[in-house]
Amino acid sequence: MSGWRARLARLAPRTLFARLSLILLAGMGAAQLLSAGLAVGERDDVNMGAMVDTVETDLRSAVALLDRLPRAERAAWLPCLEHGGYRFLAGPGDAGPPVQAPLSLRVLRSATRALAATHAFSANTVAGERERFQVHVRLADGDPVTIEFRPRRGLPLSPWLPYVLAGQFVLVALSCWAAVRLATAPLRDLADAADALGPDLRPSALRETGPSEVARAARAMNAMQRRIAGYVDERMRILAAIAHDLQTPITRMRLRVDMMDDPVQQQRLGADLLELQGLVREGLDYARAMHGQAETACPTDIASLLDSIAFDYRDGGASVQVEGARGAVLSTRPKALRRIVCNLVDNALRYAGTADIVLDCAQPQRPAIRVLDRGPGIPDAALDAVFEPFFRLEGSRNRDTGGSGLGLAIARRLAASLPGELTLHNRAEGGLEARLVLQRA
User: How many angstroms from the chain centroid is the CA of residue 228?
Assistant: First the structure.
């Protein structure tokens, strides 16, 4: 049973819109076919009853007429007595087995009521593709006459009936489509609002209109978004206050360290204070990158931005080179993009001493910025884990080499808000590649 359920689950449509449409169309189609079948069956049954009642009257009159006709004139009259469901034949007819078909038996009972009181007769089935049977009658002068019945199971269907049914099905399909679309539209709006709640957690208001259930869900969603935004803003204010308040004792401690007589302890404590100050500053930067107000996007020359970053690093004595496509203009957030690239370059310089920035526009709708280094690389199992806040690797990329473990986390958060995708890859020739793929609007 579970196997069948798994197969049905794979065959079922993925979207709620498609599933509801399929269910409604299947139900309406089945109901339409069932009602059409019942109507045709009822029509055939009524028609058969009328035909059986007519057979009894017509057969009694026809046999009485043949009895009164001269023997020489009977053959000429036989075609005139033919009806849609039976005909008269001169002679004894064909032999065959007894009548057993339900429809033939129903007609035979009507013929029996018409003939039993006045004439001797017998009946048998006639072989053939269609259902037939014959009634053999002896007229008053002893001549045999055969009545061959061809029972019809129903009246032929009108040629326009399939078109009418097809038109009805189209109307039902359109009605189902409109109903399902109206029912699923609020779900799409909710999903869009949830997707719009990006890394900065800024709310996207829903329209509080429509049916009462939809309006209530929209109001609840808007209220939830406002509460989330309020909690985030409050947390940002708390973090900013903590970071600001920590600067004062750290500054006092640095002043006291500068007054120490022991140079070794002075150097160690000074390094610890600098690291503590860096942690406070980068922790606040991470919170801002995750929850801060979004920068307005504007057309930006990516190659020029990368050149300016490289010039700044080279002015400071670092080995940073830029290569790749030129003239790539993208609507993005230049300050956030600069912060991402700088974090990646800092990471490369810290562990490899040099960094190469490559702008790849092989896919114009998805330009990529690659920051390459020739350092020790990262184990494949940890390529995604290093984006977690405060995550550090043992060995060459640990706390002793500097850094707080927040640079890559901040870069990925900012990349998601551009929007873009930031990933790390080990290079075949050695070193690490940080790849930022942007999305062109």
Answer: 29
Give residue 206's Cα distance to chain centre.
22
Cα(1)–Cα(40) distance, integer angstroms: 38
**Per-residue tokens: 410:** 């901040």
The C-alpha atoms of residue 57 and residue 233 are separated, in whole angstroms, by 96
Q: Provide the domain limits for residue 252.
A: 224-275
Rounded to whole angstroms, how far apart are CA atoms 94 and 146?
9
For 88-124, how does the pLDDT look when each residue is reduced to its tens digit (9 = 90+)? Answer: 888 888 888 888 888 888 888 888 888 888 888 888 9
- CA–CA gap between residue 44 and residue 38 (Å, rounded): 10
Q: How confident is the model at residue 398 (pLDDT cuts 50, 70, 90)?
A: very low
Count of structural domains within the chain: 3
Give the angle 436-439-441 at the CA atoms, nearest 5°: 155
- If asked whether residues 156 and 244 sit together in one domain, one would say no
Other CB atoms within a 10 A radius of the CB of residue 128 amount to 10
DSSP 92: S
Helices 16-68 and 161-196, interaxial angle, to 10°? 170
- The identity of residue 89, as a single letter, is L
For residues 438 and 369, the answer to whether their CB atoms sit within 8 Å is yes
3-class DSSP state of 299: strand
Whether residues 302 and 236 share a domain: the answer is no
Look up tokens 């009328």; give the residue: 50
Running DSSP on this structure, what letter comes out for residue 360? E
* Residue 435, pLDDT score: 92
